[in-house]
Design brief:
By secondary structure, this protein is an alpha+beta fold. It contains 3 helices and 3 strands, in the order αβααββ.
């Protein structure tokens, strides 16, 4: 169940980030309309697949596609 959901959420995140220079976690949450736990589930999936770069800038997570 969670594996399917993680893949689906990862797709939403990837689509939101595609064509951008990246977003903060807050911007990404707003763009995808995901709750925190689902957002971080999808981010974990994409990080494991080496599809994302995540940095902490001024106490904000900044996420971009690799």
């Amino acid at each position: 169940m969670f594996k399917e959901k993680a893949g689906s959420v990862a797709g939403q995140i990837w689509n939101a980030l595609n064509g951008t220079e990246g977003m903060t976690a807050k911007q990404l949450k707003k763009a995808t309309k995901l709750v925190d736990k689902d957002l971080f589930l999808g981010l974990g999936w994409l990080l494991r697949e080496d599809k994302l770069s995540v940095e902490e800038i001024e106490s904000e997570l900044f996420i971009k596609l690799i």
